[in-house]
């Protein structure tokens, strides 16, 4: 339990609110609003969104996401990330089949692309 508390992801770096056009994410309350609609996310979905939105346009490999969102010693399958990305897209994207916010960079990973 102590190990988990030390390795919990904390990508906020003194910033508790991220705002982009039509996207509002508040770290302390875990509030997510996309296109004026409040979105309910699981803890892992929120952590993944926060990490990527905190570093817009940075590409994260599935392994990097596993290491930063799950514990660095997580011994699960990288497909876990794919499943969580799919679920997250269903919740925040207008059309999950053609995502606007979380883009796939084929052969590399995923990135958060802020709306313009």
Low-confidence stretches: 1-14
Mean pLDDT: 86
Looking at the structure, the CATH topology is: Arc Repressor Mutant, subunit A
- Helical segment tally? 4
Q: Roughly how many Å is the radius of gyration?
A: 14 Å
Query: What is the CATH superfamily label?
Result: Winged helix-like DNA-binding domain superfamily/Winged helix DNA-binding domain
CATH C-level name: Mainly Alpha
| CATH architecture descriptor | Orthogonal Bundle
Main sheet characteristics: 4 strands, antiparallel
**Strand residues, percent:** 15-25%
* Share of helical residues: 25-40%
- The CA-CA distance between the termini, in Å, is 41 Å
Question: How are strands sequenced across the largest beta sheet?
Answer: 1-2-3-4
- The overall strand count is 6
Q: What structural class is derived from the secondary structure elements?
A: alpha+beta
Feature tags:
four-stranded antiparallel β-sheet, Arc Repressor Mutant, subunit A, alpha+beta, single chain, 116 residues, two-stranded antiparallel sheet, disordered N terminus, 4 helices
Structural commentary:
It is a single chain. By secondary structure, this protein is of the alpha+beta class. The chain has a single domain (2-112), classed as Arc Repressor Mutant, subunit A. The protein is built from four helices and six strands, in the order αββββαααββ. The strands form two sheets. A four-stranded antiparallel β-sheet has the order 1-2-3-4, with helices on one face. A two-stranded antiparallel sheet has the order 5-6. β1 and β2 form a beta hairpin. α2 (43-54) crosses α4 (79-92).
């Amino acid at each position: 339990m102590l190990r988990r508390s030390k390795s919990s992801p904390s990508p906020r770096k003194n910033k508790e609110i991220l705002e982009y056009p039509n996207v509002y994410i508040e770290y302390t309350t875990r509030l997510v609003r996309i296109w004026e609609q409040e979105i309910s996310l699981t803890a892992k979905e929120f952590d993944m969104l926060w990490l990527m939105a905190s570093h817009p346009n940075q590409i994260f490999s599935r392994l990097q996401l596993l290491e930063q969102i799950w514990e660095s010693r997580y011994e699960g399958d990288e497909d876990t990330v794919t499943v969580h990305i799919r679920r997250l897209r269903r919740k925040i994207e207008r059309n999950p089949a053609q995502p606007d916010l979380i883009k796939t960079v084929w052969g590399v990973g995923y990135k958060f692309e802020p709306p313009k």
